[in-house]
Structures are given as structure tokens and as C-alpha cells.
Amino acid sequence: MTDVSITDIARAAGVSPSTVSRALAGHERISAERRAEIQALAHQMGYRPCQVARSLVTGQTRTLGVVVTDITDPFVAEVLTGAEVAARAAGYTLLFASSHRDPEREIEAAALLAGRQVDGMLVISSRGDSRYCDLHRRNTPAGKGLPVVLVNNDQSGPQVHSVRMDNRAGARAAVAYLRSLGHARIAFLAGPEGGRSSEERLQGCRDEMEASGCPRESCLVLPGRGQLEDGAAAVAVLRQIAAVTRPTAILCYNDLAAMGLLAAAHQVAWQVPRDLSIVGYDNIPLSAFTIPALTTVHQPTQKLGRLAVDSCLAALVGTPIPDAVLTGELIIRDSASAPRAAG
Amino acid sequence: MTDVSITDIARAAGVSPSTVSRALAGHERISAERRAEIQALAHQMGYRPCQVARSLVTGQTRTLGVVVTDITDPFVAEVLTGAEVAARAAGYTLLFASSHRDPEREIEAAALLAGRQVDGMLVISSRGDSRYCDLHRRNTPAGKGLPVVLVNNDQSGPQVHSVRMDNRAGARAAVAYLRSLGHARIAFLAGPEGGRSSEERLQGCRDEMEASGCPRESCLVLPGRGQLEDGAAAVAVLRQIAAVTRPTAILCYNDLAAMGLLAAAHQVAWQVPRDLSIVGYDNIPLSAFTIPALTTVHQPTQKLGRLAVDSCLAALVGTPIPDAVLTGELIIRDSASAPRAAG
DNA sequence: TTGAAAGCGCTACCAT
DNA sequence: ATGGTAGCGCTTTCAA
Description:
The structure is a homodimer.
Chain A: H1 6-13, H2 17-25, H3 32-44, H4 51-58, E1 63-68, H5 74-89, E2 93-98, H6 103-115, E3 120-124, H7 132-135, E4 148-151, E5 160-165, H8 167-181, E6 186-189, H9 196-211, E7 220-222, H10 230-239, E8 249-252, H11 255-267, E9 277-282, E10 295-298, H12 301-316, E11 324-326, E12 329-331
Parallel strand pairs in A: 1-2, 1-3, 3-4, 4-5, 5-11, 6-7, 6-8, 8-9, 9-10
Antiparallel strand pairs in A: 10-12
The structure holds a DNA duplex.
């Protein structure tokens, strides 16, 4: 498999393969000179260890599986970026698979990666159900089961860890801001159904509505999937509502939906924020460049990815760390203002 | 490594491991009943082949390495999506690494993946130099060298294939359109230095300027890196130019830069397209949702990814296919119009 | 049609 | 400090 193997080096150096292995690993006690000599020789011969053979004997591939819903989603891409950096720093490589937003294919992808003997698995923005529990029972070096860490979907369980945001608090902060601006009728443009984060953000909306003296259910919920296209449908619904009862502000599931909404509002000549205040979620890089710039809830996405890897690696060595819950932060830009006519 | 091995099944079935291997592979001549019996047993015992062991003996991992400049770039994400689908369909999995836009780290990442015994390698939007030629010499099952395919950077060479766009034609089409609108002073907001595609697009600009009767060098080149932030710098430069000589239209290296430019123009109260016409490149999903919607050169991104995988796989089996060159298509939306005052 | 045996490249244990 | 040897799980000759 490799052009030059440990045996070749052994022959060339006149020592045994075991010695070469040790010299290269620096592992065992071996004379400094021998080690240097062998290492030099290996380098000179262009030796590259065969990870496959190594994995076979050590029982670990130093590979983490990562299944994403859709890498085209900026949020996902950012999380993956963070994960890649952390994994690489720890000597792990990422095996990548996408579910293309289909829960069935998500499970399928996870199973595929598990079959590839990954040492652990990350699922970014999981939509999947508890079937992950099957995965964790798979073999691992120490027979501990495959560690699985879910980002933004806490189906916690044995060997299934999670790293997530405090969605409820994030949404509350956004709504509190909108309330402080004077908005009384606030809508929530929802994310994918069954998604935990959308559910939690809606709860946060309602919590804050209630806390600020509005009926808990006064928050109009518009269906969506967290995509650019959601905006047009939302505006269509909104237009059917008489202006006096129409929401004056919308909290969107994510920045992508908010951007879609921005475009859709523009199409029907609604000025943002004058005619409609919009708040996004995620704070993707693009959100600072929309017109108007998006007020949004920042999520420490790269950190999320990093933490997911850390959590996975910790579980791997048998010292699992508690599930992390990060908090967001409202970034105030220009897409939300006081409603045109108070009320 | 796996909880149930081929030997376990053999024992349970009272046959030899070789028989089990054959039954499972369907490979050799084996009695239909035995095969069914063994397959059922394997399934029932929850057998999962150990890919690592298999790879060690077959000499192939059925894994493709993919190194990207930055997965956060929508163009890259789309190409990767296409590649993932194609790879998966062919029974390959993707090992992922990012260069984070650093040429040094790109080579490093490629070497890392090569060390992981990938069967082939894709580089999306390579910035790297000809050192890829070192990679191709690495071992492979048939000793043919590691097939490398570069997307959007044709450092062609032995075993280094490429799949790319006809950048020159794409840029020409954009400039021809701008010229037809009446623009005489057209600028090009460049992409990353050393990037082949930026270079080619600039050539296309100049070709078309010349072909349409303007001096070849009349195309003002603004520096950029293909990122959102490029816009602000470009506007700063533009503002220093007297209005009468200032370019009335800009072709951007990509949609991201165009979006940044849109925002920067808005900041200084330039109306697009009235005061400045902007044309993007890539036709990322977002480009249809900007305000105004971006006129841009469409690139069949997912197809690019698919082709890259096909090309890699073809090289793998020893029947390399010719490097693909796809053509783009101008998508006319609302960010470009006739210049305000003809001139 | 099936089994025995070798070996992929490496690590790790047991000698020395 | 170094060498011999076994074996990771699988595929693949070669025999029977």
C-alpha cells in the first residue's frame, strides 16, 4: 500500500522492524543515536506510515465522522470550520457526509460513517431521532461504544452528547429588544419542523411575550424551513392580514430566512425597518452586509464546532465532559426599529 | 475492532472464514443456499465489515480526500455538495480538510489526506502550486500514483487533472452585456492573487473591451480576495476618482464580493444600478435575494463537483477522461442597467 | 464448492 | 536496547 514500508527501512538500516517502529514512534527506550539514524533514513527514503495498517492494530482510526444537514447553510459551514480546526489540532481527520436535510438520509449517513470505523461522530444540526442510540453501541477501541455528539439537538442519552445554544434565552433577548422598541405584535418565522432549536426559540418568544405583559399565544407563528425561500411565503401570509392587526416585527429562525424576508418585503415595497422590523438568528458573516444590515442573535458557531470535537474526544478517552450550553448575544444593527405607528 | 468478525460467523455457521468472505462478497462460486444461509446469519449477528482490514488487503480505502480553501464560501460549499453526492453514489466517502485560504496549509492538508491513504484527491478552488505533482507519485493500489483533480485551477500534469470553468468566456459575456448597456468605463474587482480564475476572468474582461472597441487596458482592476470585505475597499478607491472618469460598472470576481460592494455602495448612498452597475460571478443561491437582485454569471457548481469526482474515479481505474471545461451563463437580474449619463 | 494458509503493514508483547 | 513473533480482520491464492 505504501511504496516504502517499515520493513524496507529495517532492511536498509540493518535492524528489525520492531526497532524501526519504536524509533519512529519515539515510544520505547531506544538509543538516541539509533533513533536519529533511523528517523533520518526513514525521512530520506520518503517513508510515510500506512495509517490503515496502524488502525488495524491499534483499533482506532483517528478519524471523526461528521454528518451535516446541508453544508450550503452558512451556519453549518461555520460550525464545520470550527470542528475541522479542533479536530486537526488533535490529530484527527474528518470523514464527511451530508443528509441533504433529509432525516432518513441523516441516519443512513451516520451508519455509513460508523461502518467506516470512525472513532466518534458529530452531527451538525441533527434532525434525526433517537436512533443514534443504536450507533453508540458500536465497537470502539475500549469497547466503550461510539461517542456521538449532536450539535443543536440534544437527544442526550448514553454516549450521545450534545453541544447546543440556549435558544430560549436568545429568542427572549431578541423579543425583549423588539418589545422595548414598542412592538406589540410580533411574529416568529419558524425553522424546520421537528427541529428542536426552532421549537425552543418559539418558546423563548412566548416566554418573553408573556413576561412583558402580552398574551403568551399572541406570537404569530409562520411556517418555514430556515431557508431563503421562506421569506416570500411569510410575506404572502402577512399581506392577508389587515394592517392594524398585522405583526410589526418578525423574529426569524435564522439569518437566511431573514434575508429571504428582506428580499420579499422589498418586492412588495415594504420598507425595513419602517414597515416591518426583522430580526435574524445566527449572525452569519453575510448578515452584516445586507441592506439594511441585519439585527440578529449571534451564535458562537466556530466555538460550537470546537466544543463538539472536544466533547467527542473527551468521551473517547473515557472522561466525558458535561454537555455544553452556550449563550447567544443580540447584535443590534439596522433591520429593526420602533414600529411606524405605535400600537 | 468490530464486535462480530467474519471468523465469528464462520464458527457459528460451521464453515471456514474464506467461505464466509466469499458468501458475503457474492464473489466466487458458492452454493446459493450456503450463501443465503451465511448472509442471513451475518445479518442476524449484526455483522459489519471492518473497512480498515479490508483496505489493508485490497489496497484501497474507497475514500477520496477533499481539500477546500474555505467551506464558508458558498461556491465551495456547493461544489462540495455535488462532490459528496457523486462520491457517495460510487461508494466513496470524503475525507475533509480545509486550508483556510492559506496556500501553505493547502499543501499541508493535501499531504495529510494523502497520508491517510485516500484513493484520490479533490482540491476545490486550489491556490496551491505545482507541488501537487509530488502527490500524484504516491502509491496507489495499482501503483499508478494518487489521482489529483483540481477544481478551478488547471495545474495540469501527470495524474493531475482539472475540472474548470471557461472563465474567460464567462467574463466576456458579462462585459459584453455591460457594453451593450452602454458602459464604457468598466472595472474588475479581482479575486485572490495568484488565483487562476481571477486571472482568466480579467483576461476575458480585456478581451471583450478590446473586441468592442475600447483599449484593452481600459479596464480598471481593483484588488480583492473574493470576500464580502472587498466591497468597502473598492468603493473607497472608486470615490477617489472624479465622477467623469469613474467606472460606471464593475464585474466582481464573485457574488460574495458583489454583495459586499452592494452594501458598501449603499453606505455612501450610491444607488445600484443607477449610480453603479454591478455584476457578480457564481450565481450562488443568495444572489437572487440581494437588493437589488444580482446580475451574475452562473456557474454549474454542483455539476463541477460531480465532474471532479467522476474524473478522479476515472483516473483511478486507469481510464482518465479529458479535463472538463464547463461554460457559464449570464443571469440577468437587476443590479446592472444603462449608465446614468451616457458616456 | 470449500478449506488452509499466506500476507497486507504495523504495533506490542515477550524474550534476550 | 533490540529482535522475534503474534496477530489485528480481511481477501485471495492454491489445494482438495
